[in-house]
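Batch manifest, entry 17 of 40.
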Amino acid sequence: MKKSWGLTQKILKGEKTIETRWYRRRARPWDCVSKGDTVYFKDSGESVSVKAVVADVEQYEDLDEEKISGLLERYGERDLGTTHISDEIKDYVRHKRYLVVIHLKSVRKVKPFDIDKKGFGMMSAWLCVGDIDSVKT
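Output type: structure tokens
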């Protein structure tokens, strides 16, 4: 997660109760994350430090400007921990066509650990693995 946005801390404080992933084309975690899964979070360049259980998942496709606006209004506060949607966020999602909304529960801080992205691509923002120990270093 982008460290400057402070999202992992907002997850821990309960200010951010969902994680959204916006894409131009279907990409992980599309059809890859399910209710009951455990998800882990880290800030860019940092170790994994937060985990949560997936309470629910929603997927939206064929997004256009109107749908995006409505989704930002509907999910913005729960996703960003604020009612203000910055121009940076609006610009980021402007041309996206797919959205995955992951509802979080049972959030906990974990002993920090690093992961090995070998086989996933070093720039991968989302890894889907059966066992977290398979990517821990």
